[in-house]
Design goal:
It contains 7 helices and 4 strands, in the order H-H-H-H-E-H-E-H-E-H-E. By secondary structure, it is α+β, with helices and mostly antiparallel strands. The chain has a single domain, classed as OmpA-like domain (60s Ribosomal Protein L30, Chain: A, 2-Layer Sandwich). A 4-stranded mixed beta sheet has the order 1-4-2-3. The longest helix is centred in the last third of the chain and has 21 residues.
Length: 166
């Protein structure tokens, strides 16, 4: 009986948003504003000219609503693949995102499917899979645009390639 009480108490304590989450005035909208500001800036170059060249040449790959295998701008994927072929020593991450429309868990899975699809397309274009450090879906985290309207939702349905140092 004591074990059950302890287990239930531990679960309640650990899942309590007051204990687990750091809440500040402004809540989620403040967090969204931070990420919108973050993504609007040029990346901070830490690893030198190769990283800078990477970000100058990589384009985000946009997706239509509820889709993961037909980008809205397929030329961006082709352009990225060509640049990566021409620079065989560059390693990178594939980060997928989704808009805030719909259930957060569904969006998390959708963003992972987008990231995995882009990874497979890059591999099929001749990019060695070993150059791709991680393919991750971030769901609706880290939005490019925080508003709940079609224009913002469109901007947030994307896959971004992120430089990874060797």
């Amino acid at each position: 009986m004591r074990r059950h009480v302890f287990l239930i108490s531990a679960i309640v304590l650990l899942t309590s948003p007051v204990i687990c989450a750091q809440t500040e005035p402004g809540g989620p909208n403040r967090d969204a504003a931070f990420w919108v500001d973050h993504w609007s800036r040029l990346p901070v170059i830490v690893f030198g000219p190769e990283e800078e060249t990477f970000y100058q040449n990589m384009q985000v790959i946009l997706f239509p609503y509820n889709d993961h295998d037909e980008p809205s701008n397929p030329s961006a994927l082709d352009s990225n693949a060509q640049w990566l072929k021409d620079h065989p020593n560059v390693r990178f991450y594939v980060d997928g995102y989704a808009s805030s429309r719909g259930d957060w868990l569904y969006n998390l899975h959708l963003s992972q499917r987008r990231a995995d699809w882009v990874k497979q397309q890059l591999v099929s274009h001749g990019i060695a899979e070993s150059r791709i450090k991680v393919s991750a879906g971030w769901g609706e985290l880290y939005p490019v645009c925080p508003e709940a309207n079609d224009e913002c939702w469109t901007k947030n349905r994307l896959v971004r390639l992120v430089y990874a140092p060797n």
